[in-house]
């Protein structure tokens, strides 16, 4: 069933917003003739809008032959005929999409044959350039980011821990890579290394969703973050302690897994524990079954992943 949303800050009327979302769903094929829509009461309650207001919008859409209101059953997308059929509306929208996209490709100097091949590769994920990447960071971060890039991009990725100048074997690995990747905290030192090997550096930006979830939880729950290597704590400490804390009176810990004193306190008092993938097995063994533990597969932002996908497709 389609879900409507309203933005009460824009100038568009509620009617125009709901009608626009309805038509968009029709054009995209997300809703078909005869499909049930939220009832007047359901929509009124979900949007927090007066029942009479929603009823007026539905009655207007009904008069315009978009909806059919069936007493006791609800609202349904009306079946239409003639030049206004939904198949024709979708066909027209598809034709317009093809025209607009083709025009943009033409303006970029891309031939029809090349554009068709690029679109097929983008859609299917086939015939993409095989990237060879080196993630250079502290050991824990290098491992986590490398594992994610292998899964999400099917790239060849080697994790390299920050430290002294690379040994011969590591030097060969860097030389064979297309790009070096690191976080903003180590950009200066990795850029110097990249210059030595004449490689380009790509910044790994972390996923904001993870930070947002942790910050949201910390507002009303005791929260802990458990990591493997305390050298990676600088990022969490800066983000969570300097920016967020102490805007809550709840307890908040960041601890490496070898800190027994902190870990015992966390297991006893934390309401939710966010765990590095490298620590998951150990924490699951040590924490009671009822203790809420959370970890993640995706730590890298969509912005960074999209940039690397561009290199795969067009690099």
Describe the protein.
The mean pLDDT is 86. The protein has helices at 14-27, 40-47, 51-63, 86-107, 112-124, 139-153, 168-176, 187-197, 208-218, 233-244, 260-269, 280-286, 302-314; strands spanning 36-37, 67-70, 74-77, 132-137, 156-161, 179-182, 200-203, 223-227, 252-256, 272-275, 292-294. The chain is α/β, with parallel strands linked by helices and 315 residues long. The relative contact order is 0.08. Helix 2 packs across helix 3. Helices cover 50% and strands 15% of the residues.
- What structural class do the secondary elements suggest? alpha/beta
For the sheet with most strands, the description reads: 4 strands, parallel
Q: What's the helix-strand series?
A: HEHHEEHHEHEHEHEHEHEHEHEH
Beta-strand content: 5-15%
User: What do we call the CATH topology of the largest domain?
Assistant: Rossmann fold
Helix content: 40-55%
Q: Name the shape in a single word.
A: flat
Residue-averaged pLDDT: 86
Number of domains: 4
Reported CATH architecture of the largest domain: 3-Layer(aba) Sandwich
Count of helical stretches: 13
Write the topology of this structure.
Blueprint: H1 14-27, E1 36-37, H2 40-47, H3 51-63, E2 67-70, E3 74-77, H4 86-107, H5 112-124, E4 132-137, H6 139-153, E5 156-161, H7 168-176, E6 179-182, H8 187-197, E7 200-203, H9 208-218, E8 223-227, H10 233-244, E9 252-256, H11 260-269, E10 272-275, H12 280-286, E11 292-294, H13 302-314
Parallel strand pairs: 4-5, 4-6, 6-7, 8-9, 8-10, 10-11
Antiparallel strand pairs: 1-3, 2-3
